[in-house]
Amino acid sequence: MKKRMVLMLAVMVAFIATIGLVKFMQIRAAIAQGASYQPPPEAVTTVVAHEEKWPATLNAIGTVAAVHGVTVSADLPGIVEKISFDSGRKVNQGDVLVQLDARQERAQLAAAEAQRELTRLDFERSRQLLQKGVVAQAEFDRIAAEAKEAEARVGEIRATIERKQIRAPFAGTLGIRQVNLGQYLDGGAAVVPLQSMDPVYVNFSVPQQEAGSLKLGSEVQVAADSIPVSGPRGKITAVNSVVDEDTRNVQIQAVFRNPRGWLRPGMFVEVAAGVGASAPVVALPASAVNYAPYGNSVFVVGDLKGPNGKTYRGVQQRFVTLGGGRGDQVAVLTGLKAGEEVVSSGVFKLRNGASVLVNNKIRPGNDPAPKPEDS
Description:
The protein is of the alpha+beta class and about 375 residues long. The protein folds into 3 domains: about 45-65 and about 195-360, Efflux pump adaptor protein, beta barrel domain (Elongation Factor Tu (Ef-tu), domain 3); about 75-100 and about 165-195, CATH 2.40.50.100; about 100-165, Helix Hairpins. Helices cover about 25% and strands about 35% of the residues. The protein has a 6-stranded antiparallel β-barrel. The chain has a 4-stranded antiparallel β-sheet with strand order 3-10-8-5, with no helix packed on it. Helix 2 packs antiparallel against helix 3. The longest helix has about 35 residues, at about 1-35. It starts with a helix and ends in a 17-residue tail after the last strand. The mean pLDDT is about 80.
């Protein structure tokens, strides 16, 4: 009985050991197969990196401001008698825009001129009588003062009548009219915006560490959706003497000629300011860069060896330092050499060591000065 039980146990142990050995071999084979598994290649486009010389520029966002810009307003209260302008028109300095009712002032002027004439006659008579010794010096002085007072009164009323004519303080382009015929205006009431459109200022800010590279007279170029790709060029005319305590930025002001009116006060524009001589960079399409919080990178295509020792076409991830942009391109300052083949589209689905299949039938844009079809 005991021999039979020992034999049964020995058989069971041998059976379990055999099954365990078989499973171990199966698992080891599966692990080896998984380690040697090569996922299918990802379809990508590539571009060969070329070294170019780009002008050293500093990019910023700026705002267009008029050299002269005001809202023309009424100097004195009154009723609008005549409107002599149309909204959006150009005017010259001194052009009459609005005439306020000045009938009362003109009547006062007529009375003041009559009084002035009377005092002038009295003054002439008194001077003749003073020469004959008939009139005392004190009486003559009083009459002379009255004559001067009458003359000043005429000048005051004429000035009031002139102030009832609202004129353009400088040449420029008018905005939207804000008054109507017959409307009563209080002193200081808005009439119409007036902006001097040529030249204009562009104000922008740069970090304090970059402010030293911008000098008076340096060339600045601007770009916006509403102006041609090759935007206007201007000159830096002022650098603020203080640094903003909140942002630690320095405000810069540049002046631009604007004969065609492309730049309008209040517009946001992209500013590119020259900060030195041209520098060598590796230019790539912006789509080739994998942007990430921990660092920007690109994928370089080359021949790699797999776990099975076979060579395949794959990618290596390279972290790079980026510079400025130009059209479809972005400048790579460090981390990449000219002549290397770089993935230009499909970077979002790649990882370090992934196999790729290059198909360059359709490539992303790589133009430093693109012209979109809807531009």
